[in-house]
Design brief:
It is a single chain. The protein has 23 helices and 15 strands. The protein is α+β, with helices and mostly antiparallel strands and 577 residues long.
């Protein structure tokens, strides 16, 4: 490099560099580092000097790749091998005005990241030993696809070159690699046309006698650090042929309290300092009493569990006892037949229920024989004031193992157990657990969800008692506006859908289902005739989604759940009355 450039003004330097290739075969020397150091320290003067900026980027790329002559450049007498990096920085600043971290690391053979770490360490000290300004320079580099364009040509030019003067069948041309993209680009550029009515089939011809691979040329210019029109740059970026590479570095200068001797404040007051009195001469690191402590590593409760806890607490406050719900695998008898649900009911179809393949059936000996016979008779010919369903009831259907479709199967088992007691005692029971249905997955439905169920068994209960307890239950949730609509369930009569007025939506929305268990379900168990059972149920997921503002159930439970949501969601506080 000509030494006269050191005294050139910015425009002269820009013109000097524009007339020379500083990429291919460029002889890199210590003079480059010296000039680079001079230019980068006052880089604002060269904002409009395109060739200077490209030269800076080029030299910086050499520095990043450790191609600079570091041995020749690092002969400063104030740097020793055993000196720490932060001390090296201070000693260097005592001899010169500023340090460019990237150049300095290259000159002295330091790892740039470690040097940046030392700079940040000095900046963290209470005294302002140094000041550091972060800089960055951005250059375009070719992607792997862009490099292949430089080596082989663009897709459109390669495709154009494959078309002879006599044309080529479109189907043969489209067999070439990346033909679809190349054909589209070549047609847009007006290089090719297609004769769809050709006697041999759709045929592609050249529309122009010759073409220039402009894309390849632009990529070569970018690779050689030459100027390319900004609009063309953006087109190449959209095609993912180039990518921006940002290099960050620091310009370090002396601070207001600059000193080559580092005085680090003590973090702790030790017993030795108190005994020998040395604490009087030492400075101590300030304590931040407002700082938060380190977070304790622990587990986190899922929102479903938080809402479940609130519902469970409400039931317990109302004097209910919890039913055991640990049997996910149930048989058809307790899940359907005991509830007076006919064996041909659509809910028992494989489209709605998950059937277990192994073991496929429950042994007949595990089902209460007398009770099973009464259930069979009730289904086939009726009884207890009912005509039944008038079909041939099959024990094989009742023995099939399934994933339970509702927790009412648990209620049936508990009511049968209650009926076997010598003396009937009123009960209030509830359950909250998982159930499974072969649903089509969407934003509001999963194949598994949680069901909340409550029931009361006592003598001479009526529909009025059910409505009263529903008002009491939902009032504890902060819901006081209720409406009830007649509905149908196989095992409850009468049945009611529960609606609540939603002030946000300004309309009535369904929040649950309820009813009184039918005599055809209760009397075969052995429940006294004057005992009625009222029950209601709702899902756990819907109120949880409303509480935590989740619109898609798959973001609440399943493999798409964001673990940060689980860790950061607030505690559940229901607006209880």
């Amino acid at each position: 490099m000509d030494k006269t450039i050191f005294v050139m003004d910015p425009n002269d330097l820009n013109n000097y560099l524009s007339s020379r290739s500083y990429v291919s075969g460029y002889s890199y020397s210590y003079s480059d580092l010296t000039l680079y150091k001079k230019v980068s320290s006052s880089i604002h003067q060269y904002d409009k000097c395109t060739h200077v900026l490209r030269w800076i980027s080029h030299i910086r790329s050499f520095i990043m790749k450790d191609k600079c002559p570091s041995k020749e450049a690092s002969s400063k007498h104030f740097i020793t091998e055993d000196m720490s990096l932060d001390q090296v920085i201070l000693n260097t600043l005592s001899e010169q005005k500023e340090i460019d971290s990237l150049t300095f690391a290259a000159e002295n053979g330091f790892d740039h990241q470690k040097l940046v770490g030392a700079i940040k360490s000095l900046l963290s000290l209470p005294k302002e030993y140094i000041q550091a300004e972060q800089k960055q320079i951005s250059v375009w580099e070719l992607t792997d696809e862009g490099k292949s364009f430089v080596a082989n040509g663009s897709y459109e030019f390669v495709l154009y070159s494959a078309v002879t003067k006599d044309g080529i069948l479109q189907k043969d041309l489209m067999k070439m690699p990346n033909a679809k993209i190349g054909f589209s680009k070549a047609m847009t550029l007006g290089w090719l046309n297609i004769d769809k009515k050709h006697e041999n089939g759709p045929t592609v011809f050249r529309k122009v006698d010759s073409a220039t691979d402009v894309v390849k040329t632009m990529l070569e210019d970018i690779n050689n650090k030459k100027k390319v029109d900004e609009k063309k740059i953006q087109d190449l970026k959209k095609r993912k042929l180039i990518t921006p590479v940002v290099t960050k570095f620091y310009l370090v200068t002396k601070g207001t309290n600059f000193n080559t001797t580092i005085e680090r404040p003590e973090a702790d007051l030790t017993a030795d300092m108190l005994q020998d009195g040395s604490w009087k001469e030492k400075s101590f690191k300030e304590y931040n009493f407002q700082a938060k402590g380190a977070p304790i590593t622990s587990g986190y409760l899922h929102p479903l569990l938080k809402v479940r806890t609130e519902y469970r607490r409400i039931f317990l406050d109302m004097g209910f006892s919890e039913m055991p719900t640990n049997k996910f695998v149930e048989n058809g008898f307790w899940n359907f037949d005991a509830l007076f649900q006919p064996q041909q009911h659509p809910a028992r179809d494989a489209h709605d229920t998950f059937f277990i393949s192994d073991p496929e059936m429950t042994g007949a000996s595990k089902l209460p024989a007398d009770y099973l016979e009464r259930v069979k008779t009730t289904h086939e010919s009726g009884g207890y004031g009912s005509t039944g369903y008038n079909y041939d009831w099959k024990i094989s259907e009742a023995q099939k193992n399934i994933l339970r479709t509702h927790t009412t199967a648990v209620s049936a088992r508990m009511l049968y157990k209650l009926a076997q007691q010598k003396e009937f005692k009123p009960v209030k029971m509830f359950s909250i657990d998982r159930v499974f249905r072969n649903e089509t997955l969407d934003a509001t439905h999963l194949a598994e969800f949680h069901q909340i169920e409550g029931l009361v068994a006592d003598r001479n209960l009526t529909l009025g008692h059910l409505i009263g307890i529903l008002y009491a239950f939902f009032k504890k949730l902060g819901i006081e506006k209720l409406k009830f609509k007649p509905a149908y369930n196989p095992y409850t009569e009468p049945s009611m859908e529960i609606f609540s007025y939603h002030p946000g939506l300004k309309k009535w929305v369904e929040i649950g289902n309820s009813g009184m268990f039918r005599p055809e379900m209760l009397l075969p168990m052995g429940i006294p005739k004057d005992v009625n059972v009222i029950a209601w149920g709702l899902s756990l997921e819907r109120p949880t989604m409303i509480k935590y503002g989740i619109n898609n159930i798959r973001e609440l439970i399943g493999h798409k759940v964001n673990l940060n949501m689980v860790q950061e969601n607030p505690i559940c506080r229901l607006n209880k009355v």
